[in-house]
């Protein structure tokens, strides 16, 4: 079995706790009584992560992985809501909907930068631990199936290949031609600041469009992939989401701001595509 270093657990505890407060203090005196401060609700994560580490040490690797993923999801939700609130303050000030002095606006932007510098390492720590635990789970699975019949291995391989190639096809409709024509238009890439805490580790990739192939079937290009991150302009405010499940005629997304799963049917997905969906790529890729 692959060993997971204890430091990977402690790194998350340290980096997450740092997001609980902002260096230099909170920013107050904003319209509608808004106060920008550290992330709220992360103080209990330390004990939760320690429990996950105990699960791992007891040999319950998959349980530890599931627990860490759940904590990561909660953390991303809290960070996403913080980013949305700050973006709303900045956007309202720039558009003149709310009166904000230049000094106060700069304080908000500085707080935004500081939080990005705190959330980035925390997100990276989660990714490192999840990756290590996933490798450990895979190793455990290989060891448990060693010596199985070749026929069983062949069936497993075929099943894995089928699942990994699963694609959400956009159903044919009278709107397909209009979407296809819009796919040819050049759309400006969204402001990178909209990525919020994800800006530290991700960059914009390709915009998703619907195209018809030689077989006359409409498909998303590039395709949606399970567990990958994307940015959607159609939500209010625009936000990052992760694909949870791809099913026939619908897709289940994890909304990083509200911290909940959202289901989009074919019609909803078309609307989001027209408004703009971009894939996100890790900066180190």
Q: How do the strands of the widest beta sheet line up side by side?
A: 1-8-4-5-6-7
Estimated structural class: alpha+beta
Count the domains. 2
Q: What is the tally of helical segments?
A: 7
* Share of helix, binned: 40-55%
Q: Sheet with the most strands?
A: 6 strands, antiparallel
H/E series: HHHHHHEEEEEEEHE
Shape from CA axes? flat
Low-confidence stretches: 145-184
Please state roughly what percent of the residues sit in beta strands, choosing from under 5%, 5-15%, 15-25%, 25-35%, 35-45% or over 45%: 15-25%
Tell me the radius of gyration: 22 Å
Q: How many angstroms does the end-to-end distance come to?
A: 28 Å
Q: In total, how many beta strands?
A: 8
On the 0 to 100 scale, the average pLDDT is 80
Highlighted features:
285 residues, alpha+beta, 6-stranded antiparallel beta sheet, two-stranded antiparallel sheet, flat
Describe this protein's structure.
- With 285 residues, the protein is α+β, with helices and mostly antiparallel strands.
- It has two domains: 6-145, no CATH class; 176-282, no CATH class.
- The protein has seven helices and eight strands, in the order ααααααβββββββαβ.
- Residues 145-184 have low confidence and may be disordered.
């Amino acid at each position: 079995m692959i060993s997971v270093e204890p430091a990977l657990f402690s790194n998350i505890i340290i980096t997450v706790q740092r997001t609980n407060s902002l260096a230099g203090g909170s920013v107050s005196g904003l319209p509608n009584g808004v106060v920008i401060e550290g992330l709220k609700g992360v103080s209990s994560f330390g004990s939760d992560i320690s429990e996950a580490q105990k699960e791992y040490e007891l040999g319950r690797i998959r349980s530890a992985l599931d627990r860490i993923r759940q904590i990561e999801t909660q953390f991303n939700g809290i960070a996403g809501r913080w980013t949305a609130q700050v973006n709303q303050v900045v956007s309202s000030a720039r558009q003149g909907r709310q009166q904000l002095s230049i000094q106060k606006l700069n304080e908000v932007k500085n707080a935004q930068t500081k939080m990005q510098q705190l959330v980035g390492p925390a997100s990276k720590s989660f990714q490192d631990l999840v990756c290590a635990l996933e490798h450990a789970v895979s190793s455990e699975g290989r060891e448990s199936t060693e010596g199985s019949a070749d026929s069983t291995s062949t069936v497993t391989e075929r099943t894995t290949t089928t699942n990994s190639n699963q694609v959400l096809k956009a159903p044919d409709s009278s709107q397909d031609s209009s979407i296809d024509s819009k796919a040819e238009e050049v759309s400006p890439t969204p402001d990178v600041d909209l990525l919020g805490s994800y800006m530290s580790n991700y960059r914009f990739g390709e915009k998703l469009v619907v195209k018809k192939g030689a077989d006359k079937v409409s498909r998303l290009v590039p395709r949606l992939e399970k567990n990958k991150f994307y940015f959607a302009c159609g939500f209010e405010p625009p936000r990052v989401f992760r694909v949870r499940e791809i099913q026939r005629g619908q897709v289940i997304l994890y909304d990083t701001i509200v911290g909940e799963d959202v289901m989009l049917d074919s019609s909803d997905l078309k609307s989001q595509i027209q408004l703009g969906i971009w894939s996100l790529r890790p900066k180190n890729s």
